[in-house]
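Researcher: Structure prediction, please.
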Amino acid sequence: MMTLLDRYLLQRYWQAFAVCFLALFGLFVILDVFTNLDEFTRNSPGVGQVLAEMSKYYLFRACAFFESVGSFVSVMSALMALSLLIRHGELNPILSAGIPSYRLAVPLMFGNVFVSMLLVANQELLIPRVAEQLQARPGQGDSADKIRPVLDFATHVRILSGKLFLKARKLSETDFVLPAPELVTKLTTIHAGTAIYRPKSAQQAVSGWYLTDISPSFSALSLTERGREIVLPGDGANEVFIVSNVSFDQIVNRNKFFENLSTRELLENARNPSFGILSLRAQTVHLHSRMTRPLFNLLVVLMIVPVIIRKESRGLVVNLAFSLGAMTFALGLQQGCSYLAQGGIIRLDLAAWLPVIVSGILGAWFSGFIRT
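Model: Predicted structure follows.
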């Protein structure tokens, strides 16, 4: 049951969280607007339409921004709530009443857990639904972007030059290179007027690309036995279906497309042979970090509590500096381990759990410094 003190600290926590998040997001919006103002106004005839387009654009960006900074803001809010408690001279009366110092961390941990739940809901429910809007650039209409070559590591089919239309979610004037002798007897390039990705569904057993206006035609392809399993005839003579797990989102944002996927989709990708080893490592590290993030955030909060409420304190400013240093070290260790794991230098599971273990050890070590 929550006491009056718990409600008071939790109110401080949420006030600090709102101020910190809105300040960071506002700064992000201001800098981004100044950077992309020409893009917003290029295709918009009036001020009202420009403002409406900007509001819609940054409304979707708020989901991705919350995913990026939510953990940091959660820890910072706990730090700010305790700092305000000390700054207003409220800590000594609380300790004099016989309330243990770590009891003050209980409502802050409750707030941290609630933020972690919001982060999970945001990542699993909201971001996958608005992934298409998150990939769009400011003021982008149905303009065409160049395709960066992508290789399907399962079939060795390579998607080469062409145009990409984000809103229509299609490729235009693109080339699909069929490898020899795996799929065809000699190296063959299929030029397609239009290519649309069709995911696996109840009506379709496999996922892949449906190509129209192709050259050469399907009948002219010298397919091998394996090729006839990958390259299937379409509804017309100049149409063909190429089995592939390389999705449209991967072509749009090849390096970080998986950040917009749900955990279920990431687990499916871990068994997908179409991805290269570097992409699989990055996705696996990202999956592990999602699993350990709630525990890591809690341990960082417990780590900074004894630092901000030290026995022999030289002042609040010094305590804040040490707390920010400890928090920066923990977050930097997390990012560094992720980078090393993607490069294959350390194991993926070690990269995910090492920051958690180190934060727990530091939290236990710092517990002797807390004022009682």
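Model: Residues 4-136+277-369 form one domain.
Researcher: Thanks, that helps.
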